[in-house]
Amino acid sequence: MKIELKKISYNARLSDKTSAYTAEVWIDGVRRGTTMNHGTGGPDAIFPRELEREINEYAKTLPPLPPMESLDAPLPQCAELIFGALLDVHLARKRLKRLMAKKIVFVHEGRVYTCRTRAEPTAATAVVLNDLPLDAAVALYLAQESSSISSKSAFSPDVTTIGVE
Fold it and tell me: Does residue 54 share a domain with residue 12?
């Protein structure tokens, strides 16, 4: 089953405890319904309800998510977690495309950096995301565990470390 979110409308200003968004739900290339969240901490609303049941049944066949800091046990998949992951990829793709349009974006030792010119990321282990296909660049961008913005790096005074949301 290939699940996609299309026509995603995300509002960061309304996102308080959860992401405020609306989207169409497509399964195997067919529009099947919609999903939304008001961003106030409540669950996602999925319409029609049969779609939610179908996706939750499918989610039971997926491997559980690994334990997190606040949970000791693995977390079973569900429609909300699937939609959350799809929304995260969509937002990361948008942010990365915006960054790559104006700067060189690269990864070095688990951190994401930006600079204005191609000559600056000279470390042999640096991976320039601008040179990768967008899907591969987004996957590598999301894989980084950095979470804070630091002002400058050891590369040059022009290179900035950025956090990955």
Answer: yes
